[in-house]
Amino acid sequence: MPAIRVVTRLQDLDDVNFSSVADKEFLQWDNATGKAVGTPGVVLTPDSSARNTLQPPDAAVVPLTLKGAASQSADLLQLLASGGSVLAKLDKDGKLTLPQNGLAVGTNDILVSGNRTGFGSSPTADKVQISGDLGLVGSYTRYINLRAGDTASNIHFGFPDLVTGAGAIHLFRYTNTSGVVGLYIYKGDNSVISNHGLLGNANSYLCKDGRFLGIGSATTPFQRLHLFYGHFRFEFVSTPGACTAALAGAGAGNLSAGAYTYKVTYVTAAGETTGGTTSNSVTVVDPGTNGQISLTGIPTSTIADVTARKLYRTTAGGSTYKLLATLNDNTTTTYTDNIADGSLGATVPTSNTTAGAIYAGTAKVVTLDYPTARLILNTDLSIDAGKNVVLDTATGTKFGTASTQKIGFLGATPAVQQTGGAATAGGTYGATEQSMLQKAYDCLRTFGFLS
């Protein structure tokens, strides 16, 4: 029997009911409502793949539209296995849920396995696994951000062994805002193939040979730290500026009547700066009515190593700065002073020790001092046998720069400069000379030259 083709619009017909040969309902149309009705609704059972094709007559026509009802709660689309289980679905909000055993694009170009995603191959251990190169392209700013989950986490880069010819393999490259390359970290170069290096410019290297590290040259280093053709330099944290002081107007306080000024220091893990710029002077006239001082504009540092500030203050009418309070942050800019003179602490440091120190194990051996540019020995100074202290022959060297500094020799208790006798007039030898000789003897004994 030849096929019969009817071309019409369902809306122009009365109620229509199409049935299969087995009288299985697959479409019911109610013209009054303009909707398909009945149970199970629409069931299509094509006998070939070609009959599954939806092809619009015009390129501007959408072949298939799935439109949810108002306040849609069920999925818009489900892909089912023969047994009825959901393989994939598009929910009411347009979220696509894929099967747990993976998404394959092409030949395993993208494959999801459990909570892991692989690009180029099936993922094994990592959350994201890339088999091949990762390229960031385009005119926009490009970053790769690696974030640790907590402060105890580490970020680890693992690279395979690299073998190169004439060129270096750049594992990291930094370019400044002027477009000039400022930093390479690479493995291998033309002259020292086995060394690792950091290239800042044509004359700056970090070279590693075994457990030795060299700075300034591609030459093989011969010590744990080998410095080529240069100097060590330690930077200090600059001292703070001044804070602003004013009567707090908060009623009675513990300060005494008199004038006060303040200084601030910066504190790092390495040490503390000297006192900064002196604040303006504030006078407390009647502590019973206005006996507190407000500090504002307390300096903060741009140096990340600064973790605290210390406030120092004079006593009433005094000139020596003593510890008032410690601010254990680098953000607070205000403080109200209600501390009595007798409760102040240590005096402000006279040495800036923020440049750090040299340790032998856990013992501090040398502290660097600024602005006096001194090395402060924190342990005994020993000189090998047969080695001497060689001094300048032009200006000379002082042992002790003030009479109040203490010094001792050969185990004697250090003492300040001793007082001598009056000068002897003439050539006589009397009581004055005897007194002077006694003082000389006492001095030699004091400093350990005589027992």
Features:
3-stranded antiparallel sheet, 2 helices, single chain, mainly beta, disordered N terminus, 451 residues
Produce the secondary structure layout:
Blueprint: E1 16-19, E2 25-30, E3 35-36, E4 77-80, E5 86-90, E6 96-97, E7 110-113, E8 116-119, E9 128-130, E10 169-175, E11 181-187, E12 196-199, E13 206-209, E14 212-215, E15 225-227, E16 244-247, E17 258-260, E18 262-267, E19 282-284, H1 287-290, E20 293-296, E21 308-313, E22 322-327, E23 335-337, E24 357-360, E25 363-369, E26 374-377, H2 431-446
Biggest sheet strand line-up: 1-2-3
Give the tally of β-strands: 26
Major sheet characteristics = 3 strands, antiparallel
* Net shape: elongated
Count of alpha and pi helical runs: 2
Q: What would you call the quaternary organization? A: single chain
Mean pLDDT: 76
Helix content: under 10%
**Percent of sequence in beta strands:** 25-35%
H/E element order: EEEEEEEEEEEEEEEEEEEHEEEEEEEH
CA gyration radius, whole angstroms = 43 Å
Task: Please give the alpha-carbon distance between the first and last residues.
Answer: 140 Å
Overall SS class: mainly beta
Give unreliable regions as ranges: 1-11, 18-26, 150-174, 180-203
